[in-house]
Amino acid sequence: MLSLTRKTDYALVALTYLAGRRAEGDSPASAKQIAQAFGLPLALLMNILKELVQAKMLSSTRGAHGGYELAGEPGRITLLEVVTAMEGPVRLAQCADGLPIVGQGCTLSEDCPIQGPIRALHRRLNGFLAEVTLRDLWEDRLDEAGKTDVPATTSDGTCGCRSGSKSTNKTSLKVPPLAEPAGVDIYQGA
Question: Hey, what CATH topology would domain 6-99+107-159 get?
Answer without folding.
Answer: Arc Repressor Mutant, subunit A (1.10.10)
